[in-house]
Structure formats: structure tokens, C-alpha cells
Amino acid sequence: GNASATKDGSHYKITGTAPGVDMANPMSPVNKSFEIEVTCS
To answer: Which residues does the annotated region (Disordered) include (predicted)?
Structure first.
């Protein structure tokens, strides 16, 4: 997988991909994307 983060003032955005397993087909690995946004005060 991979991830990257950006900062804009007190706003953070983290995006990337993470490896996982599809339980319907456990022999076939999958990569899923994710996005997290956080604002700190």
C-alpha cells in the first residue's frame, strides 16, 4: 500500500491504498483506496 498527506492550515487530508483480502475469493489479493480528512482546532 501507500499513503500521502497534505496540510492546509489546520486541515489534514490523508489518502492512499491498502492491501486486503476479498473473503469471497481469499486467494486473490485486493487493493482498496482510502481517504481521511481531519480538522484540528
So the answer is: 1-28
Q: What's the pLDDT at 12?
A: 98
Sequence-distant (6+) residues with CB within 8 A of 41 are: 10
Sign of CA dihedral 23, 24, 28, 33: negative
CA dihedral sign, ordered 23, 32, 17, 10: negative
Instruction: Name the percent of the chain in helix, strand, coil, to the closest 5.
Output: 0, 85, 15
Give 1's DSSP letter: -
pLDDT confidence band for 19 (50 / 70 / 90): very high
Residue whose cell numbers read 489546520: 10
